[in-house]
Write a sequence for this structure.
């Protein structure tokens, strides 16, 4: 049975964490200063796999955009971050 889990993450350019295979990221938001919360629909019994999230500022060049999937945009006061995930299919091809 699937459920929704919350994954806290410190805001960095790239965030690596373990998540259940085939988990679907639903939402990203500010949890508290300098932390993101990532909510995902997961199968708790599934095997863990590495996931890579990119946090990109507005007006920043994105040379690897072809290998990223857009997830969400997060606004925290004057800060606006665009959240992408490294495309897992392409990740394993590279």
């Amino acid at each position: 049975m699937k459920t929704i889990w919350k994954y806290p993450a410190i805001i960095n350019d790239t965030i690596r964490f373990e998540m259940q295979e085939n988990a679907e990221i639903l939402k990203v938001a500010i949890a508290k200063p300098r932390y993101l919360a990532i909510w995902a629909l997961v199968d708790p019994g599934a095997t863990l796999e590495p996931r890579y999230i990119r946090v990109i500022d507005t007006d920043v060049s994105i040379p690897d955009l072809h290998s990223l999937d857009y997830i969400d945009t997060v606004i925290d006061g004057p800060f606006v971050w665009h959240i992408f995930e490294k495309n897992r299919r392409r990740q394993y091809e590279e």
Q: What stands out?
A: The two ends are 33 Å apart (CA to CA). The first strand starts at residue 3 and ends at 10.
